[in-house]
């Protein structure tokens, strides 16, 4: 046996981007943790590992119903029209038209096998419940590597969960239910410990990434929430993964071979008795005459299976981010700043629609998790169809300017804030400007979480590095590939760079002069940027690129209470119906609090386990 620390190409799956679009060669798994001096650069000087393939997959389509005839109008859908003002969710089919070829009884039905569904299925099975989990794909999703939780037994830094609760509420401007957030704040550590115990037999060792630098990012407090796992694999497993990577030239090929936490939790779920059914798309909920959810219909072949769930149905089908048309309809501003799709195929909002059909309601304020690292060419439009490519440097707090060359915000902010500011600028665009000293400046910025490029010095209890950080070789490959694609521009003067970026040369020149003047003073008199991030642009060559957002996932799902029960339009729980993960809402509004590293992942597993505990009568 040997300990396998997730290397750069494997660990970065925590941020949801397809690695085949980033790393061109098998050697990417062995990128060195070092910085290299940067002098006069050309495009090929960045391309040490080859050219990165630019790609942005878009996923669309709708799940066909089991009925041979068109869906019929029902009162349930009509009564919820006031929820959004538009019937974007359509209408449910009349169950009498379904061709039900089989009926299956269970106690708990879990719809979807992403992070929430995996956790719910395992938790219910461990408690001895008769649980069935259905998934429309041929395989399951994952529990991402960044798991944001509080108060685990391995934590070496204590934080006040109620302080974090209130800060989280501030991100949502109060448009949330703090009781829902409180479940994450007070139960997430125990949930993580439960998962750690469950998968320990597979050689998974938990770690705590506690480095938050000075504890602030601009004016924003940062909390140590990031957790993950190191894994122990056999020589045979590792050799098989290495062979797959070498044969395909795709580092992502190892992902389907080397298991991680989600794979192990599903193994435990099956060991505990869970019935997992793939290629069984969820279609619609079943209800009795009183509105109680009694089960669900799922498609199988040309017909339907009716799953009767005596204790409850848990919706864990994800958000609607993989449907670009629906994203544009429900969140047009966020859709307009997208540059690369990092969505998980199949997340098209079917669980949210079904919850509304059952009498529930969706969050009114849309929320897209999006990071500013989708680089686009100077003449490219943002929005769907996406034209960008991943370039990690976009999240760094370098000078950002609009098409007039004007600086418009404090660049030290959460990932999505500069993107939101950009939405008010011409062409929805802001460009980042950096110079040849960018590596040293990135070290000084010391960003954390998914934006971290300089590798973390944190080690686990056994002295093994956490592996947090992209690495500079990987960052340079991304920049080089973007230069080769005509996206990142390079010039010896600011005026020349402005012309290549289609930015007003006089405006950019004046802005850089002002920026350097403020850097020399050590005080940002214009936007209040911290002195440690206010670093001059004075070492040519200069570089620039426009950045849109990674379209990751939506967070405005069905409104729920503190037990994850879906609420109806009167704000009362719908009996028998629960929602977890991105299918659920009540916790975010407008922005994702990325400085709570791994928060979405942590709340998903916590809420999924809590929903099962409520079904079991362990919490009331």
TrEMBL record:
<keyword id="KW-0560">Oxidoreductase</keyword>
<feature type="domain" description="FAD-dependent oxidoreductase 2 FAD-binding">
    <location>
        <begin position="108"/>
        <end position="593"/>
    </location>
</feature>
<dbReference type="InterPro" id="IPR027477">
    <property type="entry name" value="Succ_DH/fumarate_Rdtase_cat_sf"/>
</dbReference>
<keyword id="KW-0285">Flavoprotein</keyword>
<dbReference type="GO" id="GO:0008202">
    <property type="term" value="P:steroid metabolic process"/>
</dbReference>
<dbReference type="InterPro" id="IPR003953">
    <property type="entry name" value="FAD-dep_OxRdtase_2_FAD-bd"/>
</dbReference>
<dbReference type="InterPro" id="IPR050315">
    <property type="entry name" value="FAD-oxidoreductase_2"/>
</dbReference>
<dbReference type="InterPro" id="IPR006311">
    <property type="entry name" value="TAT_signal"/>
</dbReference>
<protein>
    <submittedName>
        <fullName>FAD-binding protein</fullName>
    </submittedName>
</protein>
<dbReference type="Pfam" id="PF00890">
    <property type="entry name" value="FAD_binding_2"/>
</dbReference>
<dbReference type="InterPro" id="IPR036188">
    <property type="entry name" value="FAD/NAD-bd_sf"/>
</dbReference>
<keyword id="KW-0274">FAD</keyword>
<dbReference type="GO" id="GO:0033765">
    <property type="term" value="F:steroid dehydrogenase activity, acting on the CH-CH group of donors"/>
</dbReference>
């Amino acid at each position: 046996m040997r300990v396998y620390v997730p290397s750069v190409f494997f660990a970065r799956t925590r941020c949801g981007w397809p690695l085949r679009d980033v790393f061109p060669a098998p050697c990417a798994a062995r990128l060195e943790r070092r910085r290299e001096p940067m002098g006069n650069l050309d495009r090929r000087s960045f391309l040490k590992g080859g050219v990165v393939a630019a790609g942005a997959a878009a996923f669309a389509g709708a799940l066909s119903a089991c009925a041979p005839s068109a869906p019929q109008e029902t009162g349930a859908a009509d009564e919820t029209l006031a929820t959004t003002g538009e019937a974007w969710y359509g209408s449910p089919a009349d169950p009498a038209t379904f061709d039900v070829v089989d009926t299956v009884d269970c106690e708990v039905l879990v719809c979807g096998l992403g992070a929430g569904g995996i956790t719910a299925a395992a938790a219910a099975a461990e408690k001895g419940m008769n649980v069935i989990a259905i998934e429309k794909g041929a395989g399951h999703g994952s529990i991402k590597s960044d798991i944001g939780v509080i108060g685990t037994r391995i934590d070496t830094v204590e934080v006040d969960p109620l302080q974090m609760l209130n800060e989280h509420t501030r991100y949502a401007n109060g448009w949330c239910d703090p009781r829902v957030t409180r479940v994450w704040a007070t139960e997430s550590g125990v949930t993580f410990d439960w998962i750690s115990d469950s998968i320990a037999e597979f050689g998974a060792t938990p770690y705590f990434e506690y480095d938050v630098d000075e504890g602030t990012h601009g004016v924003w407090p940062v909390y140590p929430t990031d957790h993950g796992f190191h894994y122990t694999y056999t020589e045979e497993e590792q050799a098989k993964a290495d062979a797959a990577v070498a044969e395909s030239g795709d580092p992502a090929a190892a992902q389907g071979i080397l298991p991680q936490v989600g794979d192990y939790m599903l193994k435990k779920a099956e060991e505990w008795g869970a019935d997992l059914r793939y290629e069984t798309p969820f279609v619609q909920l079943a209800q009795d005459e009183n509105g109680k959810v009694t089960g669900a219909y799922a498609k199988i072949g040309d017909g339907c299976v009716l799953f009767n769930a005596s204790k409850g149905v848990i919706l864990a089908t994800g958000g609607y981010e993989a449907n670009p048309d629906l994203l544009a309809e429900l969140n047009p501003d966020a859709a307009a700043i997208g540059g690369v799709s990092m969505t998980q195929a199949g997340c098209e909002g079917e669980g949210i629609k079904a919850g509304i059909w059952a009498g529930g309601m969706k969050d009114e304020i849309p929320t897209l998790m999006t990071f500013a690292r989708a680089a686009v060419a100077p003449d490219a439009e943002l929005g769907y169809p996406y034209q960008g490519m991943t370039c990690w440097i976009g999240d760094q707090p370098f000078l950002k300017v609009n098409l007039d060359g004007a600086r418009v915000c404090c660049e030290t902010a959460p990932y999505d804030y500069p993107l939101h500011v950009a939405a008010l600028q011409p062409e929805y665009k802001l460009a980042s400007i950096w110079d040849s000293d960018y590596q040293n400046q990135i070290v000084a910025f010391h960003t954390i979480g998914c934006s971290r490029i300089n590798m973390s010095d944190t080690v686990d209890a056994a002295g093994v590095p956490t592996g947090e950080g992209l690495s500079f070789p990987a960052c340079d490959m991304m920049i080089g590939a973007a230069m080769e694609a005509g996206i990142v521009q390079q010039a010896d003067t600011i005026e020349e760079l402005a012309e290549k970026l289609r930015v007003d040369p006089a405006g950019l020149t004046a802005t850089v002069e002002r920026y350097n003047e403020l850097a020399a003073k050590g005080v940002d008199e214009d936007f209040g940027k911290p002195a440690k991030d206010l670093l001059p642009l004075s070492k040519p060559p200069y570089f620039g690129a426009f950045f849109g957002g990674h379209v990751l996932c939506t967070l405005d799902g069905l409104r729920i209470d503190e037990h994850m029960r879906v609420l109806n339009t009167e704000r009362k729980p719908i009996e028998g119906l629960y929602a977890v993960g991105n299918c659920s809402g009540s916790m975010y509004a407008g922005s994702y609090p990325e400085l709570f590293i791994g928060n979405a992942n942590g709340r998903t597993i916590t809420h999924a386990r809590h929903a099962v505990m409520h079904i079991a009568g362990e919490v009331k």
